[in-house]
TrEMBL record:
Gene3D superfamilies: putative rabgap domain of human tbc1 domain family member 14 like domains, Ypt/Rab-GAP domain of gyp1p, domain 1, Ypt/Rab-GAP domain of gyp1p, domain 3. It comes from Populus deltoides (Eastern poplar). This is Rab-GAP TBC domain-containing protein. Residues 102-301 form the Rab-GAP TBC domain. SUPFAM superfamilies: Ypt/Rab-GAP domain of gyp1p. It holds the Pfam family RabGAP-TBC. One of its GO terms (biological process) is intracellular protein transport. One of its GO terms (molecular function) is GTPase activator activity.
Amino acid sequence: MKNGGSDPVLESGEELEIMEPNGIELGHKENVYEFDDLVNGTDVDNEDAFRTRKRPDKDGSGQVSVMEVIAADEKRSDVEYELSQKEINLEKLRRIASMGLPDGGGLRATAWKLLLGYLSPSHDLWEKELTENRQKYAMLKEELLLSPHTEIAEQIDRDLLRTHPDMKFFSGESSFSKKNREAMRKILLLFAKLNPAIRYVQGMNEVNAEADSFSCFVRLLSDSVDHFCQQLDNSPVGILSTLSRLAELLKENDEELWKHLEFTTKVKPQFYAFRWITLLLTQEFNFQSILRIWDSLLSNPFGIQDMLLRICCAMLLCMKSRLLSGDFAANLRLLQHYPDINIEHLLRVAQDLSADTSSYSLSL
């Protein structure tokens, strides 16, 4: 299969990063990621707020066709119509979101809140729900953030400084970026307080605005939080079990590639997919691609983990020819530095895979 990407480059003297479960040192620490578009009124197309590292177009033209503009306008109209209904049809919203939500205007923010179960389908209840949830969050902050654990606070502060240093929303000394970092700090500290068995793990610094984002962040991690708990590694809900399900999914869809990775080159899923799964692919793609991927993750009726494993498997299938011709070092380098790829093609491959054998679903 054509991957549409360029060869990864390994600089002279650069070491391969071996990812081990619970190793925490996940590599690429300077290139962090975020849980975006949950900020009320934030337009992700705003160049001043979000300055992303855009990868070059494959054809170099950078032009958008008239048909693409028309399709984007139609999609925006569809989303606006669905979100304006008195009773939101979640099944229809999931179908629309699975094809990608439009940027800007707060549409993705509202849709994600609905898909995560933070807002109910009944439009008339939104104002009441938001008011109550924001009041609960304010009370939690008042009760639990008076004396944050110093070590955890210091670790969070270090990670926040690394969060998208090329985006004005997060970095710099402006009052705007400082306010956003402080909001993220409170969210992560509160999450650590409420989850003492897990506390804070490097890689959770991917949220923005406070009250709504906190609740959505908790819901987002609800089906994968066990991946961060070392005591559960070997349990049915631990990271090793999830990595095993990925291997099973690959075997079911392409036994040749599975055998090559598993036995010939011995590139085990924990060497590359540990980061893919625990960080929800946020370090493997550019910012806009991550938003598109998360549209599919959150809209999947069988849960985030089901679609996440499908995408991870598709990432392997889309690199099949290169992986079959590679040895341990080449394949590890390729999978730890995943190349540019057409995201829509990747998601189509993921959607068309045989049924996920993991039967892992998210209950909100």
